[in-house]
């Protein structure tokens, strides 16, 4: 059975609920030992007396507060308890608030609270009341030698005490370059619509069991690989750093969103453009008199995207044909003689 790390009571009004506190999380880090690279022996740390350089055992260590340079007031665990017995043994609820009013950035460390001896009934009463009211309790609690602000939150049938950060511990954001809703960071309706589609496509029910520390698993797999290859004493040197991505490069959000949605950027973009853009207005039909006047062929302008090579060929051909064309041209076809000049200009 887990060992309780704190015993006391929850107090609000005249209600007194005996509880015991247990650690709610188990940090699964990689337990790496520091070694001397010369002979791979473990590196140890000793607690030593800075006056005579001799090692000190845990039984001979006490806590002290330095009130002047080199002068200390010795404080035992009993001294710390007697300073304020009520604060060190009580989770004092100050107020009840709506859970959504406390931003997640304030939450720090969770602890389980279990009822102490004779506290089952009042523990269950507080739990059901919090659930019914949709509230969390804001309380003060002293853990070890520090007073914490805390939130009492119901998680299933368990009351969880989650320590909170104080307001002055949260750093301000004024010094950060946070993008606003206008200017270069402005998001248009099309980008927002596609991002919403991506979010909806990736939405699912919360299942904490499917998430795990894949990096830790990869490191452990690499350790097994080194053991099998008998490379336990091989030190892998770092590779040269890869070129960093240009931070100032303009990002095409629409293309990225389309790729994330599994669409081809070209087709998806044209499809979206067809849906969002209005069709171009139709040209009105001209009177028959104007149509007869326009029966005379007019020179075509060279396309703006023509290459210099094609333009040069057309210009050379136009010059060679200019003289015979001028003799046969009629008054109505006179504008055709200006075609090479127009082509050179367009080219």
Q: Please, could you describe this protein's structure?
A:
The structure is a single chain. By secondary structure, this protein is an alpha+beta fold. The protein has a domain at 6-24 and 87-169: Ku70, Chain: A, Domain 2. The chain contains ten helices and eleven strands. The protein has helices at 77-82, 85-89, 120-133, 189-202, 214-228, 253-260, 265-276, 288-293, 308-328, 339-346, and strands at residues 6-12, 15-23, 35-36, 41-42, 63-68, 71-75, 90-98, 107-115, 135-143, 146-155, 158-164. Helix 4 (189-202) packs parallel to helix 6 and helix 9 packs antiparallel against helix 10 (339-346). Residues 264-297, 299-313 and 315-347 have low confidence and may be disordered.
Write the layout of secondary structure elements.
Elements: E1 6-12, E2 15-23, E3 35-36, E4 41-42, E5 63-68, E6 71-75, H1 77-82, H2 85-89, E7 90-98, E8 107-115, H3 120-133, E9 135-143, E10 146-155, E11 158-164, H4 189-202, H5 214-228, H6 253-260, H7 265-276, H8 288-293, H9 308-328, H10 339-346
Parallel strand pairs: 1-7
Antiparallel strand pairs: 1-2, 2-8, 3-4, 5-6, 7-9, 8-11, 9-10, 10-11
